[in-house]
Amino acid sequence: xxxxxxxxVELRNVKDYxxxxxxxxxxxxxxxxxxxxxxxxxxxxxxxxxxxxxxQKSEERxxxxxxxxxxxxxxxxxxxxxxxxxxxxxxxxxKIEKDRYVEEGYVEEGYFxxxxxxxxxxxxxxxxxxxxxVVDLAEQIIDFWKNELTGRNLLQDLE
Length: 159
Description:
This protein is mainly α. Helices cover about 50% and strands about 10% of the residues. Helix 1 runs antiparallel to helix 6 (about 135-150), helix 2 (about 35-55) crosses helix 4 (about 70-80) and helix 2 packs parallel to helix 6 (about 135-150).
């Protein structure tokens, strides 16, 4: 029997949260220019750690937070949430912006493609390059979580 008041409606365990991450990823691939969709993906990707450890502090949890992709997720999710992507507390990302061909507001929205690009700081810059598209980064994060969750036997019986 499920604990009362655990989770959020159908989001009750790690598998449910993984399905949400895949849902967010599918939407991001279809809408790579949509800020809300990108933000949702990174918040979900970062907070999957909380669902694995259910609030428990451990060395293993701390190590997971230190992985380069999780540092990026933290920086994007928490930096944006607190209104300052360039906060001194977060050191992974220089800036995030849309790759625009013309100045914002000059032409009608949707007329040009405007993918979201993440510009990285050292040491992540040497690992991923100076910049990476939001979809390319999301693909790497999906692969990371798939391997991590499979290795922890948390995705069995998912299909």
